[in-house]
Structure to design on (51 residues):
């Protein structure tokens, strides 16, 4: 393994972890908005589970 291969593996790992972290944060925000919405004005159309 050379330095360029190591750098590519580390970069891919960090990008994958960042994507998972962002997905978790957005899910938490979505849940928070679902609970705090004006339920008389905004209805819940369900969650989209596709990622």
């Amino acid at each position: 393994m050379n330095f360029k291969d190591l750098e590519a593996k580390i970069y891919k790992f960090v990008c994958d972890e960042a994507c998972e972290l962002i997905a978790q944060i957005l899910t938490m925000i979505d849940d928070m908005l679902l609970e705090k919405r004006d339920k008389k004005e905004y209805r819940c159309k369900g969650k989209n589970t596709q990622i």
About this structure: Residues 38 and 44 are 10 Å apart (CA to CA). The mean pLDDT is 91. The chain is about 65% helix and 0% strand. The radius of gyration is 18 Å.
